[in-house]
Amino acid sequence: FTTTQTKRTIIVTLAASLQRPSNKEQSCVSYFPTRSKREDLIEGSDWGTGQEVFIEFAVQDTGRGLNEDEKKLLFIRFSQASPRTHVQYGGSGLGLFISRELVELQGGEIGVCSERGKGSTFAFYVKARRSTTRKPGKNGTLPTTKPSTLGEKEAPCRNVDKSSIKVLIVEDNLVNQRVLQRQLHNLSYVVHVANHGGEALDRLKESRYWQGHEKTGLDLSVVLMDLEMPVMDGLTCARKIRELEKSGELVRHVPIIAVTANARLEQIDTALEAGMDDVVSKPFRIPDLVPKIEGLLEKYPNAIPDQQLTTPVRP
Questions:
Q1: Contact 90, 140 (CB under 8 A)
Q2: Are 59 and 148 in contact (CB under 8 A)?
Q3: 278 with 233: CB under 8 angstroms?
Q4: Average pLDDT over residues 125-138
Q5: Cβ(243)–Cβ(236) under 8 Å?
Q6: Which of 288, 301, 233, 226 is nearest to 257 (CA)?
Q7: Which is nearest to 144 in space by CA: 154, 134, 153?
Q8: pLDDT tens digit string along 96-112?
Q9: Is the pLDDT of residue 200 over 50?
Q10: What is the CB neighbour count within 10 angstroms for residue 250?
Q11: Cα-based distances in Å from 237 to 13, 95, 167, 227
Q12: Which of helix, strand or coil describes residue 162?
């Protein structure tokens, strides 16, 4: 939004206060009032009994700004400031609407301050509670807790050369592709990429999974498969891979982890039924992904033909 301006400045502000930001007289931001009465989430026992506070976030830019008619269209579902907005900047008119929903669910409000030709400030705040002081332990240090995930199990300690793990990333978004590629490279994994399911099948036909290429083909250990892609989506690709295994053209089981933003139970079941071995939901952290990769390679050790995964005995 600042690309057409001579002066390009963006200021991000994070603040906290005991007073609701929408009640402050000196604020230039006009907050949109909550549309319906919602349950106050911080009254739950999980939030403790600390003092009620408001956390405020604001982004100010020197973009083209908005006139009064354009501001009236903000935060409305499938609505943008003008028909040219989509042509110039993209989007579908859902981002601010969803942001308003999320903010209101957390006891806050969202708003804007904007003037045509001068820029805009978008701000929101959410309600929270001040944390309570924990008592020091016997040694004088504060007790620490390890975050846990429901059903999470400690990954076994595996003795494997990371560079022997060859990952095929199947992802059409080039930014996501490069970020994940760099993160896995930092772990010493060898990474190959494909832009859609059709290219993934081409890579597998060049690999040691393909009949006749067992000794000379491309080394691949596991596939990270996005679900929504052009040309061929991830579900279709997974089904074709399993069909090729049944026909004998792929001589071994290809470990596949589905990567998807649709993490509802029905989507997970659909992915598994299509032939995925596991599912990881976006956004994910690399420490969450690595145990899934190594767990699959322990289950299918032949995915690393020249090296077997071993689990050393703990003392």
A1: no
A2: no
A3: no
A4: 72
A5: no
A6: 226
A7: 134
A8: 878 888 888 888 999 89
A9: yes
A10: 21
A11: 45, 31, 16, 9
A12: helix
Q: Where would I find the beta strands (DSSP E) of 34-154? A: 52-61, 109-115, 119-129
Q: What is the DSSP letter of 181?
A: H
- Rounded (10°) CA dihedral 187, 190, 192, 193: 0
Query: Residue range 125-130: average pLDDT?
Result: 90
Rg (CA), the chain: 25
Q: In terms of DSSP bridges, do strands 30-32 and 256-260 run parallel, antiparallel, or are they unpaired?
A: unpaired
- The H or E element containing residue 198 is helix 197-205
- What are the Cα distances from residue 61, in Å, to 1, 5, 7, 12? 8, 10, 10, 9
Residues 6+ away with beta carbon under 8 Å from 89: 1
What is the bridge-based pairing of β-strands 256-260 and 222-226?
A: parallel
**Residue 150 DSSP label:** T
Number of Cβ atoms within 10 Å of the Cβ of 4: 9
CB 225 within 8 A of CB 231: no
* Contact present, 258 and 271 (Cβ < 8 Å): yes
Rounded to two decimals, the pTM is 0.53
Cα gap 275→273, rounded to integer Å: 5
CA distances from 131 to 20, 46, 47, 63, 134 (A): 18, 11, 9, 38, 9
Phi, psi of 222 (to 5 degrees): -150, 150
- Span 271-310, pLDDT tens digits: 999 999 999 988 788 888 999 998 898 888 876 655 544 4
Beta strand 256-260 with 278-281 is parallel
Nearest-CA neighbor of 92 among 81, 73, 79?
A: 79
For 222-236, letters b (16+ CB in 10 Å) and e give: bbbbbbebeebbbbb
β pairing state of 119-129 and 278-281: unpaired
